[in-house]
């Protein structure tokens, strides 16, 4: 009897395997649909060639920065990420739009059920993982990186084409660039301060290099980032582990601090920990009270269209003699 | 002298086999039926009777069916690998991770996800290669006229520490990109497709066949090397083949499910409490229970916090560990 039941058990497992095989073989036949007329090829930040509709009607955006940029040029979405990191205007605009989960972990069933004709995600493994299933469902996904100033401008331009409102995109871009020009022009002929951008939580500090968003802005403003001088990774990493000794030796004029938390109390504590560290107490930046906490909403995530504000804030800290006459 | 012809545990084993199978079938069906998007039984029927390209079809056929199948096959492979290793190494703490597969797969997969995010499609293959490579190194380190259990365990622990250091190093140097690897490290089935089914299926077949062929050797090895030799078994060859089989099974599971711990350690113990330690019954029952547990846990993990999906590895550790401790205490009192 027991011998018998053992056979049955193995038999059933075998059956499960056979079912899997059958499905696999059957899986090749795909019902054809989605034959939209106007489609064209674009290359996304991950270097993938993707065929997308010229005027997508049902767009899902998987992260806050892309959503903000897409709305800035008059786009609307049918699905959005579950996130609080949005400007108030965008937050209000998408309140009624179904949420499809947090950015690192979107719910693929809900995405498919919303019948999108284009998905905008980020160039990260968790969105790469969605590609096989979306391919089968015939839904294109673009993986957009937003790691520096130029990518914001390019992305706005591209989204303007997608929404069919290139004029609005051009206006937004012109606004940002005008502000950029002004800030850069005003700060041009001033001595370049030496800075370090510290990115961290109380237990773990990193320095931002020119590959990071903030590092890129600082470089554009003509400041010398000590992390770039000591970066031997060939410029691949946005953030490198912080060496207190290295920073102490470099003795920067200014220290910028970006935290992972919008909580003021935590940030105050992080700042005090840094400033009161014996190795740093003698630094020029600490002695002259040039340790600045960068606003969370502009620097913790990509500021999108608010990049002008971010630049202004940085310029204010870098060149106080210019901005506060 | 009266001969004992029927095993007193036969009835119990039959009951457990049948209820285990029923639970597995139920878990598979429920797994296909429920999810973030409601579908009806009619929709499910239409997927198989009259395939259409609508959303219900996409969700059931391209998302849920491959996902529950991947989960079931992962459960089978991890449970079989765990049973085999605990038997061969005669160590109740042995699990698939101990032969280095988790560490090797983890380092290889993280390196791809963090350093070359554009190649994420290759993660299953790379994880598989990393797992096999690590298992190979552990084999070489533990080789002394055959695989020695204690050396294998020590080499596994040492190599896991070494590769673990590599993973931590990647996380420290690329802290801004770690987020992308977190789900994989926890173990889960989000976004699994037919590609993953075809990846793991051959190894499940190898595992089933291997288990069918090898239960006698496992039973004999459990009695100790000398007795096994007395029974006419080539201990070194048997041990090597069995650990290699376990390595293949575990590596295939890691490649599709990420670092899903727990199943390979716990399922063999639970099954042993239920059906005893005769591998003839232990292996098939563990396979069924492993598949049921993974499918059921994944179904719950992806529905309770909808639309956010919890990686099943986290969920299983939270619910499974207390359950396991409860079983252990009951088992000890007896």
TrEMBL record, chain A:
<feature type="domain" description="Fe/B12 periplasmic-binding">
    <location>
        <begin position="58"/>
        <end position="322"/>
    </location>
</feature>
<comment type="similarity">
    <text>Belongs to the bacterial solute-binding protein 8 family.</text>
</comment>
<dbReference type="InterPro" id="IPR002491">
    <property type="entry name" value="ABC_transptr_periplasmic_BD"/>
</dbReference>
<dbReference type="GO" id="GO:0071281">
    <property type="term" value="P:cellular response to iron ion"/>
</dbReference>
<keyword id="KW-0732">Signal</keyword>
<dbReference type="Pfam" id="PF01497">
    <property type="entry name" value="Peripla_BP_2"/>
</dbReference>
<protein>
    <submittedName>
        <fullName>Vitamin B12-binding protein</fullName>
    </submittedName>
</protein>
<dbReference type="InterPro" id="IPR050902">
    <property type="entry name" value="ABC_Transporter_SBP"/>
</dbReference>
<dbReference type="InterPro" id="IPR054828">
    <property type="entry name" value="Vit_B12_bind_prot"/>
</dbReference>
UniProtKB/TrEMBL annotation, chain B:
<feature type="transmembrane region" description="Helical">
    <location>
        <begin position="200"/>
        <end position="219"/>
    </location>
</feature>
<feature type="transmembrane region" description="Helical">
    <location>
        <begin position="240"/>
        <end position="267"/>
    </location>
</feature>
<dbReference type="Pfam" id="PF01032">
    <property type="entry name" value="FecCD"/>
</dbReference>
<dbReference type="InterPro" id="IPR037294">
    <property type="entry name" value="ABC_BtuC-like"/>
</dbReference>
<keyword id="KW-0472">Membrane</keyword>
<feature type="transmembrane region" description="Helical">
    <location>
        <begin position="310"/>
        <end position="328"/>
    </location>
</feature>
<keyword id="KW-0813">Transport</keyword>
<feature type="transmembrane region" description="Helical">
    <location>
        <begin position="153"/>
        <end position="173"/>
    </location>
</feature>
<feature type="transmembrane region" description="Helical">
    <location>
        <begin position="122"/>
        <end position="141"/>
    </location>
</feature>
<feature type="transmembrane region" description="Helical">
    <location>
        <begin position="68"/>
        <end position="89"/>
    </location>
</feature>
<keyword id="KW-1133">Transmembrane helix</keyword>
<comment type="similarity">
    <text>Belongs to the binding-protein-dependent transport system permease family. FecCD subfamily.</text>
</comment>
<protein>
    <submittedName>
        <fullName>Hemin transport system permease protein HmuU</fullName>
    </submittedName>
</protein>
<dbReference type="InterPro" id="IPR000522">
    <property type="entry name" value="ABC_transptr_permease_BtuC"/>
</dbReference>
<feature type="transmembrane region" description="Helical">
    <location>
        <begin position="96"/>
        <end position="116"/>
    </location>
</feature>
<dbReference type="GO" id="GO:0022857">
    <property type="term" value="F:transmembrane transporter activity"/>
</dbReference>
<dbReference type="GO" id="GO:0005886">
    <property type="term" value="C:plasma membrane"/>
</dbReference>
<feature type="transmembrane region" description="Helical">
    <location>
        <begin position="21"/>
        <end position="48"/>
    </location>
</feature>
<dbReference type="GO" id="GO:0033214">
    <property type="term" value="P:siderophore-iron import into cell"/>
</dbReference>
<keyword id="KW-0812">Transmembrane</keyword>
<keyword id="KW-1003">Cell membrane</keyword>
